Structures are given as structure tokens and as C-alpha cells.
Amino acid sequence: MIQKQELLSLIEACRSVRRLRQLHGLMVATALVRDVVPLSRLIDFCVDSRHRDIAYARALFARVPAPTTYMWNSVIRGLSDGDEPEAALALYADMLRHGRSPDHFTFPFALKACSRVPDPSFGRCVHGRVVKAGYEADVYVSSTLIHMCVSCGDIPSATSLFQNAVNRNIVTWTTMIAGYAETDRAGEAIRLFSEMELEGVEPNEITMVHVLVACAQSRDLETGRRIHARLRRAGAESIPSNLVLATALVGMYARCGSLKTARHLFDKMTVKNEVSWNSMISGYNQYGRPNEVLQLFKEMRDAGLKPDKVTLLSLLGACADIGALPLGQEIHACVEKTIGSGDVAIGTALVDMYAKTGDAPSALQIFASLEGRKDVMAWTSMILGLAKHGHGTAAIDLFVEMTQHGVAPDDITFIAVLTACSHAGMVDEGRKYLEAMEKLYGMEPRMEHYGCVVDLLSRAGRLAEAERIVRSMPIEPSTTIWSSMLSGCGIHGDVALAGRIGDQLAQSKPQGGGTSVLISNIYAGAGRWQEVDEARRLMWKKGLKKTHGCSSI
DNA sequence: CTAGGGTTAG
Fold first, then answer.
1. How far is the CA of A310 from the C1' of B8 (A)?
2. What is the pLDDT of residues A364-404, one digit of tens each?
3. Chain centre to alpha carbon of residue A81
4. What is the value of pTM for the model shown?
5. CA-CA distances (angstroms) from residue A417 to A297, A398, A457?
6. Which nucleotide's C1' atom has the smallest distance to the CA of A316?
């Protein structure tokens, strides 16, 4: 008959679940089957990420008449990071029902499960018990509590837990920094990092990763560089040997538009995975470098890696940029073969690609197939696609439909809507939507929004209205805005307004020769040669030459 | 037996 000590060493040496089942079989005939120590080892083995057989772990657990807290914890832990975190919570509830008190191990596991389920009430429930049982001071518990609040989108609670924490360690700080970075509060993340340094807490690699993410998100290249310099001082390596850290660094430079630096570091990485390749490729995509996207993707494939969802997003973006429909179709086929086009992000990228490459029917078809999953980006890309194809009315109809579906428009939606009005010459609608944006939706129009409407009014010859908008805008009008007004002046022969704009521009700092040329052309058109000379002289005085037209091809 | 890591469309 097998002895306990022998069994334990056999379990420790075990390498597969198959073998583990045999060992379990050996126990069944003996009293060891009721011994919690070997049983715990068996459960831990199945829960371990290397072997992972949760079903077997649960089966073993179910046969134990009075499982120890340790066993409850093991199974909850195993379920908490699996495919069904709900099961971890169900087991946690079972544990309470069996009169077992959760301990400082149980809570981190249960809270992890809470942060992975959509319903925030589980988290609140477990949080309540943490307080009742007096585990708030435990750093493990408080860190997972903060993480859980962040996952539920409850930043105020996370912040208050962090500030009131009796014990904080680097994980607590990092969790809070990551929480801010993940929820578009990059400024807060960076501020908290400075505070941490002032308190003399040393960051580790994970902290650095999140600070770099915050820098990337807010395009804060300056802070990003400082972090990079720190990393170089800390380790002798020119690129961190840690894959995730190196990727975050590349991603930071790429998102800030320092593509050369990003690429330089990327090329130095000796080990790369999909995420590393994606961060470089999406950098090229975000900054309008479609050829580099396609080139680097080829290299990624040559390196033996397959494109995933994120890679495909960039590839579709590149096709849209260069107007490559056949290539776009090829990538679409690849999407269907691998992840499917049902994902909103992918669907939106497809809609955009088809719209920009001139295949409106396919764009519409993909859009329709998204059904109830359509978010603001999906709607906006379709509205913009229709607008650019000259279907202004259809675009506006779609906007109305979107609001009826309860999807709230954002600033970019309004650019799409105003573009639709602009392309279709819907002057009054354009004015109406600009006003609605402010008054109804409480959004502050940006230069692009004013630009659309000014362009629309100018082209319709309603220059007085355009001028009124420009003069009452809360922001300094851009050259583009003045240019579209001047174009309007040219078309509708409003020499007086062109002159006023010219004076205005003469007082401001030089912004390029384009507007001066427009003005002198308007004077020339009206036969006012003296003013033409004057306008040209002004151009020279400001040290400007007529900028030559430059083709993108 | 415990907590916190990178890429993502309009």
C-alpha cells in the first residue's frame, strides 16, 4: 500500500493530468483519499496554468466531504482567471453558504473574478464582506479591490480606496497608475507616478509599463523620453530585455509619432511577439504610412508570426489610405477565414476601407451585418462614408437613425455630419447641426467643425454669415478657415471682404503664402492691380514665396 | 496557495 510521503513526492514529480489520474487512482483504495494534504496537491496541480484541467479540479473538490479553506481558495483561484469567472463567484457563494469564512487569500481571487464579470454588483457585494471581515488593510486585498473598482469603471471609489489605504506597496501604486491610464486619465497617471517618486517608492518594470502607456495615450513624448532615460540608467541595455517593457517603449514612441526612434528600438529587440509587431505596425498606420504598414507586415509573416485582430486593423487602415480595393478584399478574406467580420472594431475598419476604396455597397453590407453591435465609431464611419460619396441626405438620415438607436454622437460624428451637409450643399442643416452640437449635446465645436460650416456658407455665397461665425468663434481661426472664406470671396466676387481678411492676416503672424496668393488673385480678377501689387509686396516683406503645389503621389 | 504588465477601428 502506498505511503503518504511517497504519494506526495509522486505528485510533485507528476507532469501530466493523465499521470495525475493514475496517482489519484492509487489513493482511492486507501485512507489517503480522505487526507486533505495530498488532495490539496492534486487540486493545485489541476489549477496550475501549466496543466490546467479545471473540470478535474472541480471533480476532485466535489468528492471531498469537508474541504478546507485552502481547497476552496485553490478552486476559486483556478476559476477566477479562466473562461468563466462567474463560476468562481458561484463557488465563493457556495463557500459562504457552507459557513466557511473567506480569508485574505480568498478575497484577492474572488475580487479578480469580480473584475472580469460585466455586472458590477458582484464586486460591490464582495467589497462589502471585505469591510465586514476587516480585511481592508491587507495589501493584496486592497490592491485587488482597487483593480476591481477600475474594471467596473468606478474611478472615484478606486481613488478613495487608494488614498485611504493603510498599507501601500509598489503593487498598490502601480494598480492605481494603471487604473488611471486605462481610463483615459493619462495626466492623473503621470501625476501619481511623480507623487510616488516623491514618497521614495521605487517603481518596478510593471510600473514603468503603465507610465509609458500613459505617455503614449496623452502623446506626452517629453515624459516618455524621461522614462526611457531612466530605464537606460537603470540597466546597461539599450533596450529592456523584458519583452513587455520593450514593447511598451516602442509603442510609446510610435504613438507619439517618433516613428524613427520607435523603429530603431524595435529593430534592436531580439525577441518579439505579435504585440511588439502590432505596436510598430499600428504606429505606421496611425501616422499615415501605409507602405511601411504593408512592408513591416511582410517581415512579420517572414518571422513566422500570423496577423491577429490588431494587425488586421492596421492592414485595413493601410488599404483605405492608399485606396487599394483588391488588397483590401484579400485582407477581408483573411478576416473571414480567421476571426470573422462580426467584431465591431474589425467591422468598422472594413466599412471604412470599402468606403474609401469606392465600394459603397460592400461598406453598407458590412455595416448592416454588425446589427446591434454598432457603436459610435461604426455609425460615424458609415455616415462619413456616405457623406464622401455625395449621399448627404442618406448620411443625415443615418445620423438620425443612430440617435434613435440610443447611440450618443461624439465630436467626430459631428465632423461626419457637417461634412455630409457640406458635400450636399445643405447650408441650413449645417448651421443647425453646429448649433445642436453646442446647445443640445454640450460639446464645444473645434476648428474642423467651424471649418466645415464656414466652407459650406462660403461656397453658397453666404459670406456675411460665414464672417459672423469666424469673428465670434471662441478660438483663433486657422489659415484653412480663412482660405475657404477667400475661395468663397473669389467665386462670389466679394473683393471688399477679401480685403478685410487680407488686412486681418497681415496683422497676424505669417502662416504660409497660400492666403496671400488667393487675395492677390481676387484683386487681379477684379482688375484692381494696385492692390495686387500691394498684396504681393506684403508677401515678400513677410519673407514668403508662393508655395508650390505638391502632389502626394 | 495570494495582487498590478504591452498592440486596437471612425
1. 5
2. 999 999 999 999 999 999 999 999 998 999 999 999 999 99
3. 23
4. 0.88
5. 34, 10, 15
6. B9
